[in-house]
Amino acid sequence: MPKKHKFSVNGKRVEVDADANMPLLWVLRDKLGVTGPKYGCGVGVCRTCTSHLDGEEIQPCVVPVGECKNKEVTTIEGLANGDDMHPVQQAWIDADVGQCGFCQPGQIMAAVSLLQRKAKPTDADIDAIENMCRCGTYPRLRAAIKEVAGMPMDPPGNGKPPQGPPEDTPPNDRGQGGSGQRPGGQQGKPADGTSTDGEQSGDKESGGLFDGIGSAFGG
């Protein structure tokens, strides 16, 4: 049976009529018009709807509104201070984290929760965030969190140095992507002037070895 529930949402006192077992997410979106938290799975697994209840991370799709009496609910809409974005929101923009953007409100709220618990999170701490992103923006998410924490970013290639050409790559192919491209743009042309179909080409424009070298050095 519906009853009145009193609590706060983003610093504003609210009162709603709803069954005590109605998920908080439905109350936020359908009754209060707070649409930042998104519906993803409805069972607290994808964490797209992540918000905070009295400062603790929750998934409002599985929290009954009856459990929110006299408590403070914070959603993505409550992070900014007027026109000043929360540092995590700004970092998300700086790192260009979002793609489709659907999961990002929950991702940001999870990141805020993590940084409140641990100002200098490790990679393992960041990887422990269970919010799902179908666009796969996890590397940029990590970069944004590290920006807020004032920590060094991951080097390109996840810390691994750039790989050179394979040891068995012919010298003339190194730096050419192993494509067989000879100096001067002669594709796969042997030094004796033989074309790729096995015919001899004795004229100067046939692309012999010395013509190729001349082209490579501007000759």
Provide the gyration radius in Å. Answer: 29 Å
Q: What oligomeric assembly is this protein in?
A: single chain
**Share of residues in strands:** 5-15%
C-alpha geometry? elongated
- Return the string of H and E elements: EEHEEEHHHHH
Number of helices: 6
Largest sheet geometry: 5 strands, mixed
Alpha-carbon distance between the two ends: 90 Å
How many strand elements?
Answer: 5
Helix content: 25-40%
CATH superfamily of the domain at 3-78: Beta-grasp domain
CATH architectural group of the domain at 3-78: Roll
Low-confidence stretches: 157-165, 173-219
- Structural class by SSE content: alpha+beta
CATH class of the domain at 3-78: Alpha Beta
What fold name goes in the CATH topology slot of the domain at 3-78?
Answer: Ubiquitin-like (UB roll)
Strand order of the largest sheet: 2-1-5-3-4
The chain-level mean pLDDT equals 80
Provide structural commentary.
The chain is α+β, with helices and mostly antiparallel strands and 219 residues long. Among the domains are: 3-78, Roll (Ubiquitin-like (UB roll)), CATH 3.10.20; 87-156, DNA polymerase, domain 1 (Orthogonal Bundle). It has 6 helices and 5 strands, in the order E-E-H-E-E-E-H-H-H-H-H. The chain has helices at 24-31, 87-94, 104-117, 123-127, 138-149, 209-216, and strands spanning 3-9, 12-18, 51-53, 56-58, 72-74. It has a 5-stranded mixed β-sheet. A hairpin with a 2-residue loop joins strand 1 and strand 2 (12-18). Helix 2 (87-94) crosses helix 5 (138-149). The chain starts with a strand and ends with a helix. Residues 157-165 and 173-219 have low confidence and may be disordered.
